[in-house]
Design goal:
With 395 residues, the chain is mainly α.
């Protein structure tokens, strides 16, 4: 039964509806045996909430298990992942900070828990502490991809793009296609190269690292979508239509499988970029019909991206500028959600709205550091400031 519960949690962590339904089937089968052990019953209850799409209730259920059974590493992991999926970074950090204290230094799980801790610290902006925790995890297990991934986030957040690119190349050397999180790690590499303006390297990474998938239909496509979107922002002269059409074919079935907001967002972007606005509108309607799961500002973000693809940059700028700082309920990491801020300032620049662009520049995250691409944005902003033909008022 313990192994079946672990499998169910693993399937749920994919956040793909077919896998979620498989997890629900496993748990239904387990309940038929009439389990009475309190921990098992509590975990099955939390999994039920998860399969029903109530991620907050699922997180609270697993947290209750952790509070009662502090050594339950599977429930600690489930809480961590659910906090990530609902964008609750304060709870993510508080929970793992408390949980890790209950594991002995020689516990087989302790290294992996240090990796979870490192990621929670990084997302909370405590980068030096996060780096130290990741080093501890990697000393215990150099193959801990989650700790390595958290370290990559630290390098990104501290503006160490060249070091991050080199670190990924060295780590991935000799590792094959079955490496866990392979595609996501290469996405991080492409992001470092993008900010360095190494566009041909980004395109090569996209073709051979990110679109070389292990499953024909999976959330592996998430990284492809936002990398391609960023490329289109940074190099609008590139003809990426064939890439978008290829992505659209993989995302096309998602309309009937919509389930999780972060995944919905990526499918919506793809539909809009492929010109499939009827499908995009149907998806947003389905998303909003889920009710309480969807914060009000999420509709602004979705529609802002739609307006951007139709060339209505003023509307895109207005929607995204007022919503990008409140995007955490979408889930995902700070680095993944940076695409919203980057799109917001691009829309403001294209609509020649200097005040909105300046405000995003001053209150956002991505301009804390320097890179060739970010300098181009700085130059465009300065040119707009000195122009006689920009919009003065904020939206």
């Amino acid at each position: 039964m313990a192994l079946q519960l672990m499998l169910a949690v693993d399937l749920l962590c994919s956040m793909e509806r077919p896998a979620v339904m498989e997890a629900a089937t496993i748990c239904a089968s387990l309940k038929e045996t009439g389990p009475t052990e309190a921990r098992t019953v509590a975990m099955l209850s939390a999994i039920d909430f998860w399969t029903a799409g109530d991620l907050v209730a699922a997180r609270n259920g697993f947290q209750t298990v952790v509070d009662t059974y502090p050594g339950d590493a599977v429930s600690v992991f489930a809480v961590h992942m659910l906090d990530f999926y609902i964008g609750d970074v304060p709870h993510m950090l508080a929970s793992i900070t408390e949980a890790v204290e209950f594991f002995a230094a020689d516990d087989p799980a302790i290294g992996y828990l240090h990796g979870l801790y490192g990621f929670a610290l990084e997302e909370s902006g405590r980068f030096e502490a996060a780096i130290e925790r990741c080093r501890v995890a990697l000393e215990l297990n150099p193959d801990d991809i989650y700790a390595m991934h958290a370290m990559v986030h630290c390098l990104y957040e501290t503006g160490r793009h060249e070091e991050g690119s080199r670190y990924i190349r060295e780590y991935m050397r000799g590792r094959d296609g079955s490496t866990p999180m392979r595609i996501h790690i290469w996405w991080h590499y492409a992001l470092f190269e993008l900010y360095a303006d190494n566009i041909q390297e980004v395109l090569a990474c996209y073709r051979f690292g990110i679109r070389r998938k292990t499953s024909p239909r999976s959330t592996e496509d998430l990284d492809a979508v936002t990398l391609l979107w960023r490329l289109a922002l940074v190099k609008p002269s590139l003809d990426l239509s064939a890439y978008w059409q290829s992505l659209y074919q993989d995302w096309k079935p998602y309309l009937d499988e919509n389930w999780y907001l972060f995944n919905d967002f990526h499918a919506y972007l793809t539909y809009c970029q492929a010109g499939e606005y009827g499908r995009a509108d149907s998806l947003l309607e389905a998303v909003l019909a889920r009710g309480k799961e969807v914060p009000e500002e999420m509709a602004d973000i979705f529609l802002g991206f739609r307006s951007f693809t139709t060339g209505d940059y003023a509307d895109a700028s207005a929607r995204l500028a007022r919503s990008f700082r409140r995007s955490s309920p979408m889930g995902g990491s700070n680095a993944q959600r940076d695409v919203i801020e980057l799109t917001a300032i691009e829309a403001a620049l294209r609509s020649r709205n200097y005040e909105v662009a300046r405000r995003i520049r001053e209150t956002g995250r991505i301009f804390r550091h320097r890179s060739p691409v970010l300098q181009q944005y700085e130059d465009r902003l300065e040119a707009l400031r000195t122009s006689d033909h920009h919009t003065q008022g904020e939206n």
